TrEMBL record:
GO BP terms in the entry: protein homooligomerization
Organism this protein belongs to: Branchiostoma lanceolatum
Domain BTB: from-to ranges: 12-111
Source domain of life: Eukaryota
Database matches in SMART domains: BTB (SM00225)
Protein name: KCTD7 protein
Amino acid sequence: MKSIISFSQFHFIVPLNVGGTHYTSTLPVLRKYEESMLAAMFSGRHIVVKDKDDRYFIERDGSNFGHILNFLRNSSRLPPPDKVKDVYHEALYYGIKPLADILRRHRSIHEEEEVARWAEQCPAAQEKADEIADLLLNKFADTLRRTSRVVLQFDQEPSWESVHLTGSTGETIGGYYKPYAFQQDEGHKDHKCPQPEISMGEMSEKEREKTLSFIDHHFEKLGYKVEVVAGECREAVWSQKEGSGMDSITIYCTKQIYTLTFT
Ligand SMILES: [Zn+2]
């Protein structure tokens, strides 16, 4: 009995239908990388479905298959930078390891994988991103604006800056200086920075950086552009006028906050 599909059934020229997009290639090109899924598909060992026009059918988005074919034809032909991510995923799907290996070194892929790893290592990053997304959707829903801001803060020790003005000129003469009276005063210890809407918990400098980068990538995928600006709380928490010249000392909170602008 003759097998339904056999090696000899493939012609040298192979018409393809990839998810509705038509391509034409040749057997040696499709079989170029032995371990690839395409080589297996056209090895004669598997059953391959055909469409009504006798084209071999691959159930996959066809828009980037041309880049895969170009690489099989000539391994120096790489996709343009804006297609790298999509083609990388196709290369993984088709099992074309040499192409996947080249594209993995591309900055966008490297970043994407780094970011995905971070989401695994630090589940809080994903949780916070979801929290920000919920807040953001509410903010956008309330207005018709195209821009919205979310202020974040990581847990940190209190930090202050003292500004010392002379009564006569109003000039700043003091840098970092905490008056004794301030240190004795309990009031400022309750200071909670008023701007932050989301508390990010305790993270090291490196963890903060990675989490912010994760948020950036995460929201880019959700269709937002994110601009992160680091700043300080700058709330005046204590002040005192002193001396005969009425010098004044004001203590400002200098805890770091991050303002994320989403467009
Ligand atoms: Zn503050």
